[in-house]
Amino acid sequence: MAPVTVLIPQPVGILRISGEKVWPFLAPFFPGVDSPPPARTATLLSFSVNGHCVDQVLLLYFPSPHSLTGEDVVEIHAHGNPHNVRFLLSQIQSRGIRLANPGEFSLRAYKNKKLSLLKAESLHRMISAPTYSEFLAAHTSFSNPKTHPLFEIKSLFLETLARLYSFLDHPEELDMPSYDATKEALIFAITSLLSKSSTQLSRFKKSRRFFPAYSILLAGAPNSGKSSLFNRLLRENKAIVSSLPGTTRDLLEGRISCPFGDIILLDSAGFRASNDLIEGMGIAKARQTISRVDLLLWIASPDHPNAFPLKTRTPTLTVWNKADLSPAPSSLKPDFSVSARTRRGLSSLITSLLARAEIFYSHSAGSDPLLDSSRQASSLSGFSKALSKALFFLSAGSFDLALSSLEEARLMLEDGMGMIPSEEIYDRVFTLFCLGK
Ligand SMILES: Nc1nc2c(ncn2[C@@H]2O[C@H](COP(=O)(O)OP(=O)(O)OP(=O)(O)O)[C@@H](O)[C@H]2O)c(=O)[nH]1
Ligand SMILES: [Mg+2]
User: Fold this and answer.
1) Does ligand 1 lie within 6 Å of residue 248's CB atom?
2) Is residue 59 over pLDDT 80?
């Protein structure tokens, strides 16, 4: 069981439960309802605890095997107050139903053959896509797996392999193409497969970012007001703010969804020489993150009126904070002068950040299907290496060695497509999913 929606005040909060014979566990919450509600139909029911109705809910029952996971699945659409959703969760847990791990529903769907690995990865990309066009690209692969780049490559590859097999099995038959014609056709097909794979790999490389959206890091000396600005930009009190220098130790992440694409905002530990082991680790993490983001905001303030002390290729803007206390020294020449406390200057900073993110997205990949993960990319790159070997052997006239390289390539591709089950794949793919998926 897991909440499918996040725990914030909202009209509806959804809980999902999956398992064998789920209804008998839930029946006590619905006194008077003797049999499971009708399948795949929304039923309005009173959720009761100790004989008292605690919420009116819509219940959807998907009996096995016609469900998301292949098991019995029940979805409860409750009123979305987070306290209510937590209470319902705890009540259901007290009946012996445990909380699901992140991605566990998808993992069960995969194990019960309800979802292929490629679809699972497209689904993950679809949910976390930072722009609508990236959502559409993932949706195309998800709803029509034949458009997935690996699927297209596989069809072409199998034709090539079949051609080689049939030549090796019946080389003497009259209607078979000659040795030279076969060799030429195979070289042509493999070269074209190599070119398709390399196009996909470079599109993937171009689209890949360390953070899954346009990312902005707030860095600066301790107490310069990074967390205060982070909270202001996010419009949420996510980071702890205090007058003690060294308050933030880890990297904190927030996401802002804009019509043209998402922005990931990162708050970090203040730069200083520290003997504290944990703070030191936080500072190292902040430094490491500088080269991984799309934009660095260096926050200076009257406490530490210094310019950014390091060299970086990451575009950097200097922001003078606490402008309510004093103006920036003329030597600093900040790009923006703001006060996180009074909000002075914040709107022009925000306008500039949004404009930069919009330009960034205007150059990003279109909505054509793309590889979904670095796992797929590494399989495709192994596939290409094996193809190159096959090409070498073919050119040297050794069809047998070419065949064994093509078989090696087939394994690589099948591994990429999740056709070879392995525990490692479960760990690498499904644990990345969010709770409730
Ligand atoms: N006057 C004034 N005080 C501010 C402003 N911004 C932040 N402060 C105060 O400065 C102190 C430090 O703020 P934080 O946001 O915690 O600073 P930080 O850079 O995140 O600090 P560390 O996490 O320790 O690196 C707090 O007491 C804030 O209330 C501002 O614009 N004006
Ligand atoms: Mg802080």
Assistant:
1) yes
2) yes
